[in-house]
Amino acid sequence: MRHNPVTHPRLSSVQAFWLSRVVCRPSGLADPPGGVWALLERKDCVVVGAGVVGLAIERALALRGLEVLVLVEEDAIGTATSSRNSEVVHAGLYYPRDWLKTMLCVRGRVALYDYCGSRGIQVRRLGKLVIAVDEGEVMHLRHLMAQARGNGVPVEWLDQAAVRQREPALRACAGLWSPESGIVDSHGLMVSLQGDLEAHGGFVVLRSPVTGGRVSRNGNHEISVEGSGDVRCRMLVNAAGLGAQALARRLQGIGEARIPPQLLVKGHYFYLSGPSPFRHLVYRVPGRHSAGIHVTPDIAGRARFGPDAHVVDALDYQFDERRRAVFVEDIRRYWPGVTAERLEQGYTGIRPQLRHAAGERPDYVIDGPADHGVSGLVNLYGIESPGLTASLAIGEWVAGLLEDHRSRQAASA
Question: What are 316-336's pLDDT values in tens digits?
Fold first, then answer.
C-alpha cells in the first residue's frame, strides 16, 4: 500500500515529499531497514528512468543485492518510448554482427521469451516476413539474409510463391522468413520487472525530475530533485531514454564531448478496422530511419500499420491525420486491398536515435566507468528499437559494467 506521511510523525517535510511519490508496493512488502525515511540516506544505486530498459537495469541491480532507488519524472512508469512502439520481439536481423545492439538483441530475445514464459506474460512467437516488393529490393533482401545468418539468426529465403503461401494477401517478389520474431505485452512486462525490483527492496519514486547534480570520479555522486533535497549514491545510471542527453548535461562532471547528439524520429501508427488478412509480422526492407511501415498484430490480435519516420525538433505526440494518405500509398505497394476507410487513427511514438555523420543509424552507446573514468556512472544513449527485445540483456550488461568496475577497484585497493 502507499505510505501516508501523516502516519509517520517523525518525517520532515522533505521526507514527506519523497514518500508521497513512492509507487504502491505489493501488499506484505516490509518497510526498508531503518524505516521508510531511510530512502533519503545514501543509496548504493540511483537509476533515473523507468521505461522497460530502465526497469530491466534496476531489476538486475536489485537481484545483485544492491539498494536501488528509481527516480521517474512522470506520474507512471513507461509512459514514453516503452508504451509507444510496436511491441515486437526482434530476432536480430538488421545490424552488423560486431555491434553491441546486435549482441544485446540476440541475447535479450532468448531471455525475454524465457522470462515471459515463466511469468505468464503474454508473448507470441508469430514469425516475421521481410519482403521485397520489386527486383530493386531483392539485392537488399539478400544482403539482409547474409547478415542475419552471420548474426546466428535463423532465416529462410522465400520466393514469390512461398511468400503467397504464408500470406496470400501480400504482393512481393521475395521474402525472408524469421521464425524467432514475435510480439509481447510490453505493459505486462514492465509491471513484472517493477515487481521484481520491489520484491528485492527497490523503490520507484514518481514525479521526481532530476534538475541537476554532480558526478565524482571517486563515486561520490549527488543529484538534485525538483522540490526536494539532494540524493547521494555510489552508483548512478542514466536510463532516461529521450531525456538522457538533457540529463547528462545537467550533471556537472560529464563533459559535452561524451554526450552524443540526439535525433528525435517520430512515427505514426494506424489500426486496421475489421478482420486482418495477416497472420504474421510483415516488414519491408529497412530504410534509413526505420524498418518501414510494417504490419504488426497487437496482443489482442488487432492489426496495426507503422511507424512512418520523420525527424522532429521537440517531443510532440500529436497525431497528424494527413499521414493517412502516405500510409495508404505505401501499404498498397505490398497489400493492394488496403483502403483509406479501413485505417483508424492509432497513436504516435518518438525514437531516441543518435545523429551520425554518415546519416546511418549508429550503434547503442552505453558509456560506463571504463569509458569515461567516473566510478559508478553509466549513461545510456540512443536505446531505440530493438530496446524492448534487448531490455533484459541490457540490464545484465549495465549491472556487469558496474560490477566489473567495483571488482577492479577492490583488487587495486
Answer: 999 999 999 999 999 999 999
β-strand 88-89 against 182-184: which pairing, if any? antiparallel
Residue matched to cell numbers 554526450 = 259
What does pLDDT average to over the chain? 89
Distance CA 71, CA 91 (A): 31
Rounded-to-integer distance, Cα 79 and Cα 22, Å:
17
Cα–Cα distance measured from residue 62 to residue 68, given in angstroms and rounded to the nearest whole number: 6
Residue 72: phi and psi, rounded to 5, are -125, 130
Residue range 179-210, pLDDT digits in tens: 999 999 999 999 999 999 999 999 999 999 99
Taking only Cα atoms into account, the Rg of the chain, rounded to an integer number of angstroms, comes to: 22
Kindly write down the DSSP assignment for every residue of 60-73, as one continuous string: HHHHTT--EEEE-S
Measure the CA–CA gap between 291 and 20, rounded to whole angstroms.
42
- Given a contact cutoff of 8 angstroms between Cβ atoms, the answer to whether 349 and 85 are in contact is yes
